[in-house]
Amino acid sequence: MAGITPLFDNLWNEYILWSFLVGGFTFIWLYHHSLWYRSDEDEEWDNKDAIEVGVFPKEYDNFKLEVTWTVIPFLLIVYLALISWGPLDAVWDSTEAGGYGDECADGEYSNLTWSQNDGRYIAECYHVIYIEAYQWGWNFDCLTLSVPDLCEVGTAIVDGTPAASLSLKQGEVYLAVMGSADVTHAPWFVSWGVKEDVLYSQGAVDRNGDGLSDNLMLTQNGEYDLSAPLGELGLTSVWLPADNVEDFLLLCTEYCGDNHAYMVALINVHS
Ligand SMILES: [Cu+2]
């Protein structure tokens, strides 16, 4: 459950708190005014403002009040956007802010550790893997990860149907670089609570006819690697800290056509 860390938990709690405060204030205000400012039944009242139904009495306009209830919510939204920044950095691949160091050299391990200070996992280095989404399934590629237990791609049976499987190692951090061969998909790594949109990538199709999607190329060592630096390929990416030994599903959470609901893969984290 890498996603469920104090960093995210605190943000969640703070959002819930503000929702209660704003909701409570608004509803109390609303009910108070609805009940307080009303005439009793059959009461004679002096219509000195000549109020007409459906016409707002202009003389009750309160500019200060109007500015206040525009500015205060605006400040609250800016504040909430700012406190969301840190947790978002921990999910998206801002590599410096990621807390996962640089890409691991060959044979190097991440050493995923819990940082009480940061309220999240940190690591010494990370591994890059490639995920391609298509209607309706997932392709994985371990790229240059040559140590087999760090990353392995295979097939699994999910609910009686064959699906791709990705096997990762506990205690390692992966940067998943992702592209879609057709429409927008959104992989949801269920147990990690990680979800990210994957957009159509020109390179997710084999145009140059080498039998591989153009985002990949065959290196001299016979491994696949990204065909250009990450920034140039225009792919989305997301952090995957594999903290627990477990099996869980990768699902698609962006409706992408007839078999969207069956667009699954198996993620396996082994020790
Ligand atoms: Cu999809």
CATH architectural designation of the largest domain: Sandwich
Rg calc: 26 Å
- Report the principal-axis shape: elongated
Order of helices and strands: HHEEEEEEEEEEEEHEEE
What can you see in these coordinates?
The chain is of the alpha+beta class. It folds into two domains: 5-36 and 46-92, no CATH class; 100-270, Sandwich (Immunoglobulin-like). It is built from three helices and 15 strands. The strands form four sheets. The chain has a six-stranded mixed beta sheet with strand order 6-7-15-14-9-10, with no helix packed on it. Helix 1 (6-36) packs antiparallel against helix 2 (63-91). The longest helix has 31 residues, at 6-36. Residues 133, 185, 252, 254, 256, 260, 263 line the site of copper (II) ion.
In short:
With 271 residues, this protein is an alpha+beta fold.
Give me some keywords for this one:
271 residues, 3 helices, elongated, alpha+beta, 15 strands, binds copper (II) ion, six-stranded mixed beta sheet, five-stranded mixed beta sheet, single chain, 2 domains, Immunoglobulin-like
